[in-house]
Amino acid sequence: MLSRSRPGRARFKLAFGLVCLGAVALIAAGCGGDDDDGDGDGTAGPPEDFTLTLPFQDSIVWNGYEIGKGAGGTFEEQCGLAPETVATEGNSFTIQQLISGKVDYAISGAPEVFIANARGNELHGIANIYDDVFTVAATDESGTESIEDLEGQALGVTDLGGGEIPLVNAVLNDAGLEPDQDVELKVVGPGGAAALKALESGEVAAFAGAINDLVPLESGGLRFNTILPDEFIGLPSDLLVVRPEALEDEELRDQLQCFMKAWYTATVFGEENPDEGLARICEEVPEDCQDMEFARGFYDATIDIAIDEARRGGCSDYEALTVTRDAVAAVDAPGAADVDPEEVFPNDFCEETVPSEDDVEAFAERAAGGTE
Questions:
Q1: Strand order of the sheet with strand 2-3?
Q2: Any domain includes 4
Q3: Are 125 and 138 contained in the same domain?
Q4: CATH number of the domain bearing residue 40
Q5: I need a labelling partner for 229 at 20 to 30 A (CA). Which of 69, 100, 126, 147 fits?
Q6: 200 is in which domain, residue-wise?
Q7: pLDDT tens-digit profile of 270-316?
Q8: pLDDT tens by residue, 163-194
Q9: Whether the Cβ atoms of residue 169 and residue 115 lie closer than 8 Å to each other
Q10: Largest distance between two CA atoms of the chain
Q11: Pairing state of beta strands 134-139 and 81-87?
Q12: Phi, psi of 86 (to 5 degrees)
């Protein structure tokens, strides 16, 4: 298992599926509805369609979303919504959709939000979903214990345009190292045979990627330790990003708040009731549950990176966001240094999305076949 130095999570259980942990785009169809007051009793009529666009298909990785779907789920019971999934082209697509005004809200990464604002495109991050999606790790046998140890060696990456590259550039810069000068960035693909061979042979001294990329490598017998400096652990990854117009539209804002609260409620339910949570996901994505031992590990790992954000309603961690901003400014967009995290990632939205224990308990009772 991947060892991490973050307090309270010394050992990180990995058993992710072979999917890309990219950003999620959210697009609503037919927003609003007089029957939905956003307070958990908006189910007087049939649930309203709500289209959720993801960068890839439904999966265990979207734990709160998958758990909360369906009859008796949090989206229907708390918000009167029936989410439907549409796959799209990934994170860069959603950011461009926001900038162009084709969508009013989407889920993207914090670095991309800083870059967009640095370039004069006003976007706001208002509800975080995951942290620690990407990492840089080395095997126990490699002798590589820090980013500084990579000098003169090769670092394996999934792709030169992969989601891990902003983190790689930031930590190398922090260590005073230049990519492709002091450290070779060697493409070995996502965690698979090529990456396994490169690590076993010493062709690369460490590997950078999404945590799911480490799963097949661990299945191949490797064991990893993160070599990230402490300040780069616990950084926000995917979050709900909106155009200013979305915050000005009271009806849309209320619907988004209810949707995110329902998502977080389902995540907390999933942590407290893992068997029931996984069972609900398997109804939505049976292809992820053909090997239940694998599915269980996959489930545990996704809950681990989501639960802290869920319990605090996705509220911003300004210390972590400042680290992200400074890294972006140093490597990708110097103008980001002038972006104020508290203005771009306001916490007033998330005050209404913290899940209540009453909602979690009501969901548990419904899932058990009881009545509210």
A1: 11-12, 2-3, 224-226, 134-139, 206-210, 154-157, 184-187
A2: no
A3: no
A4: 3.40.190.10
A5: 126
A6: 134-232
A7: 999 999 999 999 999 999 899 897 788 778 888 998 999 999 999 99
A8: 788 889 999 999 999 999 999 999 999 878 99
A9: no
A10: 65
A11: unpaired
A12: -130, 125
